[in-house]
Amino acid sequence: MKNIYDITTILSENTPIFDGDEPFKKIDLADIDRDGFKTSLISMTTHTGTHIDSPAHFLKNGKTLDQYPPEKFCGRGHVISSHKLDLYIHNIFDEDIIIFSDDNLIEFDDDFLNFLKNKKIKIIGTKGLSLEYNPPFKLHQFFLSNDILLLEGLNLDNIQEGIYYIMAMPLLIKNSDAAPARVFIFREEISLD
């Protein structure tokens, strides 16, 4: 299949982490030369690298990722800059996925937040490890309380803005506040470039 892009941040000891989090670790437990096979132990937080936040990350009785059907994590979507919303807003449909390509933290006005809520957007994605880094985490609270999942830590190098089919599949972890995800985008025929 052509025009498929992997926008997942690779996990390694050099993967950026939040201050105070344990870094990603991979320890070889068995070696082919010694044991005839290789197996490894990995250690990381649920918010390491590319990951999806569930409502349980901020809401006491919020849903966890294992409570969602697979279709919540895939669908029609957009890779856009928050500075060009006026060019894209008429192409945002119900239950779309939106990935913001901005390098910096994004500011949303109340009208746009309500627009996203009313459109029942599935997922909001960002390049940064988090949509916001300091309390009171109003955006996390708003999106997650409205069942809009957060996809953070994306690698958008060399990705053009436009309309894509997006698959953001988290690891299936019971009762998890978040989970690492592998994310692919497929170019659709329609483009606003």
User: CATH superfamily name?
Assistant: Putative cyclase
Quaternary structure of the protein: single chain
- CATH topology-level name: Glucose Oxidase, domain 1
What strand line-up does the widest sheet have? 4-8-7-6-5-9-10
Output the CATH class name. Answer: Alpha Beta
- β-strand percent reads 25-35%
- The whole-angstrom Rg is 17 Å
Domain tally: 1
Please report the distance between the alpha carbons of the first and last residues.
Answer: 21 Å
**How many distinct helices?**
4
What percentage of residues falls in helices of 4 or more residues?
A: 10-25%
CATH architecture: 3-Layer(bba) Sandwich
Let me know the largest β-sheet. Answer: 7 strands, mixed, barrel
**Which structural class do you get from the secondary structure elements?**
alpha/beta
* Bulk shape: globular
Listing every helix as H and every strand as E from the N terminus to the C terminus, the arrangement reads: EEHEEEHEHEHEEE
Average pLDDT over all residues: 92
Low-pLDDT runs: none
The number of E-state strands comes to 10
Describe the structure in your own words:
This protein is of the alpha/beta class and 193 residues long. It has one domain (4-10, 46-187): Putative cyclase (Glucose Oxidase, domain 1), CATH 3.50.30.50. It has helices spanning 32-35, 85-88, 110-118, 138-145; strands spanning 4-6, 25-30, 39-43, 51-53, 74-80, 97-100, 123-126, 149-152, 162-170, 178-187. A seven-stranded mixed beta barrel has the order 4-8-7-6-5-9-10. Strands 2-3 form a two-stranded antiparallel ribbon. The longest helix has 9 residues, at 110-118.
